[in-house]
Amino acid sequence: MDELEFCIKSLSYPLGTLLEGAERREGEFVRVKKGAVTIPEIPFAAICYLTGIALFDSLDLVDKKRLSGDYDSIMAFGRKLLDSKLGEALRPYLESPGRYISPGERLSIDWLEFERRVEKVGPYLERVVEIQRETPSRGEFLEKTAFLSELTVDEGLLLGYIAEDEKLTELINAALGKHNPEFKKMVVRYFRALRT
């Protein structure tokens, strides 16, 4: 997993699955097609935002409807970037995304595979929800979630996605950062990329 896949999966895990194993190519515009994504030489934060939009645009209407909340997450990510220190430099890409995206191929999410993965991490979510219910303090929650070290980076992102509650997702990410060295390493790489 590279920083781009990590970024997209943190916004919309199902959309991020479309990047798995996809070749990264250099080009003038962001363009997604089966097995490849074209990336221009622009700031990474803009690449993530534009790739999220391009992936969403590649879906059929049924999948778009199913992931409408995820599209809202991509838009919220864009607004957060505009309000950041990088906002001015990113403004052209965030305010006129159509200028930097070239239409790609129609892509579809493998929902059966997605459900299979959800089943695998489901028991972790149940334990986390139970701990959150029983422990009022953040510190105690973090102490009791050491078992999240068992998850891969990918499973950690999926766990945060299926939590569906912003506060719980934030707690899960904090616990993963504390107990899961691979996840923490990937987060560091991701935030470093966001600044470039």
Summary?
Helix content is 65%, strand content 6%.
Report what the structure shows.
The structure is a single chain. By secondary structure, this protein is mainly alpha-helical. The protein folds into 2 domains: 3-109, no CATH class; 111-192, no CATH class. It contains 11 helices and 3 strands, in the order ααβββααααααααα. It has a 3-stranded mixed sheet with strand order 1-3-2, with helices on one face. α1 crosses α3 and α7 (111-134) packs across α9 (153-163). The radius of gyration is 17 Å and the shape is globular. The protein starts with a helix and ends with a helix.
Radius of gyration: 17 Å
How much of the sequence lies in strands comes to 5-15%
Quote the distance from N terminus to C terminus: 18 Å
- Give the helix tally: 11
Largest sheet: 3 strands, mixed
Q: What's the order of the H and E elements?
A: HHEEEHHHHHHHHH
Q: Enumerate the strands of the largest sheet in spatial order, edge to edge or round the barrel.
A: 1-3-2
How many β-strand runs?
A: 3
Mean of residue pLDDT values = 95
Which residue ranges are poorly predicted, with pLDDT under 50 across at least 5 consecutive positions? none
Q: What is the 3D form?
A: globular
Q: Report the structural category.
A: mainly alpha
